[in-house]
């Protein structure tokens, strides 16, 4: 049996961030991921300036293209783009296939390709698949995290199942603006995100419950969205016809669920951190990875309520806090 102080299950942004901070402080950590990196991750690949700060990525550090984004929101069929977005500072696009592999390699942690199936407690140790033992176990396996499934079994509210379809492909004549479409009678949104190397990511996500109720099909919504892009001159018809989109169900867990057991912490999507409206999850994954590492290091506590929310709800929350502060009598 392989013994380490900390096992991180999942090498996405949450897991690699946690592993990196532990390695920086000289701690013993092993990352288990079922995928071999670089791996495909369905994601539009939008990140905020804060993500770069939290990850300590300075100008010139990142070896792959990263494009500053001019984000335009198209609301409910209005024919113009609003240059508005609820994030302070700049926004960027990256390709997850490059970003996640680079972060994981940079973490300095040993990575073993292993599909985690079982987790059990044995005295003060967690045992993973009867092959690995650790004192601290981090569940960073994303929306289908096996640690979450094994130890936090009652947390998958069906109403929050999201269905997504997307395609990332080389399209050098793509426009530079990033577009979000909140429309088409869809409880969800669609996006066009340009990437730095001439690629573009086109996708769409919707609540599964809504699709079931409305009797509509996610593929039909995606095709209708492509037709709109062709009509608007943002995509040529031959490319649209040849696109083979891929998709999967994605679970947005409630944020009030449990994220800790004795020496076991859930982080990132496994902890239900991606926002419901915008689906921003990379930033929360990174923040949670840092906080979980700090708890292991005895320097802090992993606290979900401290994670920054860049979403419409988060915007409202920040607005209310600011308004309350203004009306507070001076101490
Ligand atoms: C279509 C779509 C678009 C999105 N767009 C954006 C966006 O533009 N910006 C944004 O901020 N967020 C976006 N998100 C959300 C974002 O992708 C996630 O919030 C983010 O990836 C969470 O990071 P994570 O490290 O928690 O999990 P993941 O990135 O999902 O990493 C989990 C890792 O765990 C591994 N794993 C899973 N099961 C096992 C197992 N049994 N054994 C071992 N390893 C396992 C996986 O292989 C994976 O590498 C999007 C999500 C979707 C679905």
UniProtKB/TrEMBL annotation:
InterPro entries: FAD/NAD-bd_sf (IPR036188), Geranylgeranyl_reductase (IPR050407), GGR_cat (IPR054715). Pfam families: GGR_cat, NAD_binding_8. Residues 175-232 form the Digeranylgeranylglycerophospholipid reductase catalytic domain. This is Digeranylgeranylglycerophospholipid reductase catalytic domain-containing protein. It comes from Rhodoplanes roseus. The lineage of its organism: Bacteria, Pseudomonadati, Pseudomonadota, Alphaproteobacteria, Hyphomicrobiales.
């Amino acid at each position: 049996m392989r013994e380490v102080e900390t096992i991180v299950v999942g090498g996405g942004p949450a897991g690699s961030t946690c592993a990196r901070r532990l390695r920086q402080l000289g701690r013993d950590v092993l990352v288990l991921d079922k995928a071999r990196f670089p791996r495909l991750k369905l994601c539009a690949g939008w990140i905020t300036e804060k993500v770069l700060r939290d990850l300590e990525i300075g100008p010139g550090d990142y070896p792959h293209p990263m494009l500053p984004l001019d984000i335009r929101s198209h609301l409910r069929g209005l024919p113009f783009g609003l240059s508005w977005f609820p994030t302070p500072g700049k926004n960027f696009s990256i390709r997850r296939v490059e970003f996640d592999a680079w972060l994981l390699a940079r973490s300095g942690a040993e990575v073993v390709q292993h599909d985690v199936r079982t987790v059990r407690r044995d005295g003060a140790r967690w045992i993973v698949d009867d092959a690995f033992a650790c004192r601290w176990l981090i569940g960073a396996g994303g929306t289908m995290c096996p640690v979450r499934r094994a130890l936090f079994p009652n947390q998958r509210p069906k109403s929050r199942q999201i269905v997504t379809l997307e395609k990332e492909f080389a399209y050098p004549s793509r426009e530079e603006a990033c577009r979000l479409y909140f429309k088409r009678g869809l409880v969800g949104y669609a996006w066009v995100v340009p990437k730095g190397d001439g690629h573009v990511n086109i996708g769409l996500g919707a609540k599964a419950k809504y699709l079931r109720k409305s009797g509509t099909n996610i593929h039909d919504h995606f095709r209708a969205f492509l037709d709109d892009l062709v009509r608007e001159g943002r995509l040529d018809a031959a490319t649209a016809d040849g696109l083979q989109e891929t998709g999967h169900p994605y679970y947005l867990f409630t944020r009030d669920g449990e994220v800790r057991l004795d020496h076991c912490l859930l982080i990132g999507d496994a902890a239900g951190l991606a926002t419901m409206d915008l689906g921003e999850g990379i930033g929360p994954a990174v923040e949670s990875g840092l906080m979980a590492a700090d708890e292991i290091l005895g320097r802090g506590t992993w606290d979900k309520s401290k994670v920054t929310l860049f979403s419409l709800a988060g915007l409202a929350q920040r607005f209310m806090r600011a308004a309350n502060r203004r009306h507070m009598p001076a101490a």
